[in-house]
Amino acid sequence: ATDSGPLIATETANWKTYIDSKDFYSFKYPEAWFMNGDNSSNVHNSVGISPIKLQGVDQAFSNMIAFNILDNPNNLPIEDYVKANISPQTVNYSTQTIAGIQVKRTADLPGQFSNDEVFVEYKNKIYTITLIKSPGEQIPSSTFNQIMSSFKFTQ
To answer: CA quadruple 70, 75, 79, 81: dihedral positive or negative?
Structure first.
């Protein structure tokens, strides 16, 4: 397998950068995309990005990439946290390294839509990055992977 790092960096060079100073992470996303929600004033600690501007209830049922930060005060491993707080069903994960960060990835969580989810443990929090695949024009997995490759912690 070849390393696609420099290629992805070139492809994302002109993208916008989102920096979250509350939960200390950043990522890049396509220039023409929209930020839906802003964590600086959001009690739910979540932001979403999508190729179209979403408002209100649309945000819950649209093709988008959602970033959610969940408190993990007992510092549970990702599998245990998901079982206790998200889904009691058995979930199959793959362990991957994205941008130098070890993550758990699954497309196995039950739900209304088919999702690709990435979970990261960091400083007593669980960061979830979800590619929501609802009906209609879907965001390509390659774009999700490019955005994930730019994800990093700022502290």
So the answer is: negative
Q: What is the rounded distance in angstroms from the CA atom of residue 154 to the CA atom of residue 133? A: 28
Q: What is the DSSP letter of 57?
A: G
Query: Strands, E, within the chain: which ranges?
Result: 16-20, 25-29, 34-36, 46-50, 64-71, 94-98, 101-106, 114-122, 125-133, 152-153
Give the residue carrying structure tokens 């879907």: 138
Nearest in space to 120 (alpha carbons), one of 48, 58, 68:
68
Segment 95-123, tens digit of pLDDT: 999 888 899 998 877 665 668 899 999 99
* Whole-prediction pTM: 0.82
For residues 62 and 138, what is the distance between their CA atoms, to the nearest angstrom? Answer: 9
Work out whether the CA dihedral 84, 87, 88, 94 comes out positive or negative: negative
**Alpha-helical segments (H) within the chain:** 5-11, 78-85, 141-150
Q: What distance in Å separates the CA atoms of residue 110 and residue 90, rounded to the nearest whole number?
A: 10
Instruction: Indicate whether 76 pLDDT > 90.
Output: yes
**pLDDT tens digits along 136-145:** 778 888 999 9
